[in-house]
Amino acid sequence: MLLAVSAQHVCAQGAESGQTPAAVAHTALFDYFSYSGNDDIYKSIKLEGDGGYYNPILPGWNSDPSICRAGDDYFMVTSSFSYYPGVPLFHSRDLVNWKQIGYVLNRPSQLPLNGQKVSAGIFAPAISYNPHNKTFYMITTNVGWGNFFVKTKDPFGSWSEPIRLPDVKGIDPSFFFDDNGKAYIVNNDEPEGKAEYDGHRAIRVREFDVNTDKTVGPEKVIINKGVHPEDKPIWIEGPHMYKINGKYFLMSAEGGTSDMHSEVIFRSDSPFGPFVPAKKNPILTQRDLNPNRPNPVTCAGHADLVQTPSGDWWAVFLACRPCDGKFENLGRETFLLPVSWTDEGFPLILEQGKVVPMSGTVKGAVRGKNVTFGNFAYTDDFSEKILPLDWMSLRSPVDSICTTSAVPGYLSMKCVATTTAQKAVPSFLCRRIQHHKFESSSRLVFNPTADKERAGMLLFKDENHQYLLCVAKTQTGKAVELRKTSDGGKDEILASYALASADKDIRLKITSDGLTFSFYYAVGNGDWKLLKNNVDAGYLSTRNAGGFTGTTIGLYATRG
Fold it and tell me: Which of 124, 228, 375, 468 has the fewest Cβ atoms nearer than 10 Å?
């Protein structure tokens, strides 16, 4: 299997790895892929102590985080939508040093995504540990398939086949395992009767039998509308239930996933309610702050809580970092903050009116060299048969069209008829963009001979918002092109430079200053030449394109 089975390190060799191979018909050969981040904010903030960390702890599109602990081990998952494999799984022993150890859904049988748009697929996975049967559960929504869960005794190994939950409707299901051995599922769903306004939703609960893996008993609405029903709150969702000091707490997101996003909390004596909201709600939001503040963090919400072995509480949540307060291409990222407790006995993630801090400290942790946050760089030379874990494809494995085995030291990508504008499986491998300011490059051996053949580096937001820096066949030969994909998969050529037929070894480079992209090429070992600069990065942003993912960058080949 080409994608994401293990996380071995790949060393940088690139163009120095040896003699250039001959071009392969209808196939692009990529010698390496490099990426480096250079955001200014990490240079201006100094981390405090050995346990210091930067927010976000998982930069770039890592939305809807959910966390659990078993003994000294923490596990966290995030949403993957229509990317494959699904539900990246991270492990830590101190909340600071995180490492991706795999994907929960890494087999096609677990992840039917055919025909779904990029922002469909897997929504809001929730991971839980049941100490009564020593089993981990991951429950989620596949928008085109329904709600289901998988389970395992060993999160470092494989997870079960999907177990569907036909009685659980709506989205965002989450397990709660009580200390008496009982289990429950809470989820977002439609209210009883007709919705009174757009965004009117409810939270439901029902019991779950861990022995039969089925829901039992009646379902009950425990939250209708939100904290202040009279204000017609929208999109109460992403619920998690906890039992703390004998009381049941229900925590949910509220206000939608944009600038009005927040996290709210309720408490009860029973999993079935009645649930009473805290007087100090929301317990996390950035919606009440000056939008012109420096280095704004926005859209904060969709949180999950975890308790350390020493008894401290922490929260992971999603938020966005718009560049210059204008837009963001990074998507919704994962942040970490300590939790305090109010006099009323409710958890509080952040006092209203305070900004989400861009750094923090976990007592007792020792930050390692290969942390997931801050400015970092990586290079893959494609010398291994299995790619590192942060590579992804769309909707399905691409082993039959993308391989590192055909030509040693190169990623071979066939030019297939499918394009990334279609809801299908293109010849495309990508990684998340994780910085506003970055540089990424690759070396390509490619001689397009068939009509519409092209290959290169792709900035991808969704089916209708893309920039492709590529080598393409033209009527007169071949050229380096910059293409912009818009609605309906229509391509517009923004810039082009004719190449000699003998120029089979081309380097490509994309740089970003946050607000704009610049695109470069080089022939052989020649100097970099600018193809086009000042290209609008906002075109790929969620503010412009919509959707729930961030921008990815990767390697692509097509004849569509």
Answer: 228
What tens digit of pLDDT does each residue of 28-55 get?
Answer: 999 999 999 999 999 999 999 999 999 9
The predicted model gives 360-380 an average pLDDT of 97
Edge-to-edge, what's the strand order for the sheet holding 298-307?
Answer: 298-307, 313-320, 333-338
* Element of type H or E holding 338: strand 333-338
Are 40 and 375 contacting, i.e. CB atoms less than 8 angstroms apart?
A: no
Mean pLDDT for the chain overall: 94
* Residues taking part in catalysis: 64, 237
Distance CA 512, CA 60 (A): 14
Percent of the chain residues topping a pLDDT of 70: 97
Q: How confident is the model at residue 3 (pLDDT cuts 50, 70, 90)?
A: low
Percent helix, strand and coil across the chain, each to the nearest 5:
5, 45, 50
- Whole-Å CA distances, 94 to 60, 252, 290, 308, 361: 21, 25, 34, 9, 11
- Residue spans of alpha helices (H) in 369-474: none
Q: Which residue bears the tokens 């910059």?
A: 482
Q: Tell me, what DSSP letter sits at residue 130?
A: E
Element housing 29 (H / E): strand 27-37
| Residues 36 and 431 sit within 8 Å (Cβ to Cβ) | no
Name residue, tokens 């997931």.
Answer: 372
Inter-CA distances, 516 with 537, 539, 540, Å: 5, 10, 10
Beta strands in 514-551 (DSSP E): 516-523, 529-536
Cis upstream peptide for 338 (omega within 30°): no
Q: Quote the CA–CA distance of 147 and 127 in Å, as a whole number.
A: 14
Instruction: With beta carbons less than 8 A apart as the criterion, state whether 35 and 78 touch.
Output: no
